Amino acid sequence: MALANKDSRILIVGGGGTIGSSTALHLARRGYKDVRLLDIFQNPSLNSAGNDNNKMAGDDSAGIWGQLGTEAWKIWTTDPVFKDHAHNTGRLDLTSKPEREERLRTRYQGIVDEGRGAGIEWVEGKEQIVARAPHLAHADLTGWKGLFVKNGGWVAARNALNSVGHELRRLGVKSSFGSSGTFKDLILGSDGKTVKGIRTVDATEWYCDLVVFAAGAWSPALLDLEGQCETKGWGYAHLRLTPEEAKKLKGMATTYNHELGFIMEPEEGTLELKIVNEFAGYTHLQKVRPFGLKKDVLMSVPRAHAIHPTDTITTESLEAIKNLIKLWLPDLVDRPLFKTAMCWCTDTVDMNWLMCEHPKYKGLVVATGDSGQTFKMFPVVGKQVADLIEGTLPEERKNLWRWRPGAGDNGTARGGEKAKDLSEVEGWRNDPVVVRSKL
């Protein structure tokens, strides 16, 4: 059954981010006439994990995620809103660990079995890897193996978000930002269950027929999700290249190693190379009271760099980034690092989206649980939300992204050690946090 029609008033909380703006795009393209974005920042929201130089992307999965990845990459490379921001450099997903190798081989075989084997290769050893990634010529690749994805590479994330923002304005999507776009609580009907709108931190009341709650990493701290999502942060840094160095790395395959981290082609014009180390992420535990709870709870909440620009990254994260440079790009080992910051996402336990109508509140759709894979699906994630609203989302997808507290890991969760809290590690500096001002 449809949750709204084309004349319905629809509010999107977190509408300046990845899922929110993608949802607005698909609704507007389908002819919905009254869609409004709510966010603390203008699109592209500075609070969004997608507001970044670049993100990995590509057709590199099997099953439902493979269907989405194939569709997404086609749109990335053909749709006028997206195509200028996609870079088909190829992508390497490598490992030297048996457990990770088993997962990669399973994924590889799944893609082949689906008839898409022409777009992917299994690579082993230094000769095969360096043939596709010359920048690793000086790296110790003993025991390394994995996937080379032909249809993929990276996307200019911030530019793509901005492009969608321009298209939303052209299509007549409304917006409210700042204090009048910052979520405080839901407005409920007399039954205590039917959502009538949103109240913001400056007491503005926005009434509507449907709310789409797409608040990204802030979702669990603002709305009771019954423990289905956990917000985590990852450190990253940049180094500046000379024009000659950037030219040498132009077209390089995006390179990911589950134990070390990832790098990708420097964005043209900036000469900046982003480096991210890979690990379980950090939590930032604080007492908060999400809407729907009657008492404070301890949970991880983000620390937006846009609001706290003096925050640093941890010593161990910084050292891991330096180690990745030493192993992969030794010629740049002494280059100063800058633009260090934390990127915040929210993971579900099984690494699948949480995308469904909230079981306690009629007229509230939850669309969150990024789990580190949403930006590559940016062109199609909003289509899933729109299909859910119209009652046409396939049952298999509805089941995968259903409300599922306590469902547990189905084998797709991030591997590695348990996340540490920032209070337990050295090097991270910050100023006092006020949780409710984050969205």
From TrEMBL:
GO terms for molecular function: flavin adenine dinucleotide binding; saccharopine oxidase activity; sarcosine oxidase activity. Residues 404-425 are annotated as: Disordered. Pfam families: DAO. SUPFAM superfamilies: FAD/NAD(P)-binding domain. The keyword Flavoprotein applies. Keywords: FAD, Flavoprotein, Oxidoreductase. Belongs to the MSOX/MTOX family. Residues 415-425 have a biased composition (Basic and acidic residues). It comes from the Eukaryota. Residues 10-388 form the FAD dependent oxidoreductase domain. This is Sarcosine oxidase. Signal peptide: none annotated. Its cofactor is FAD.
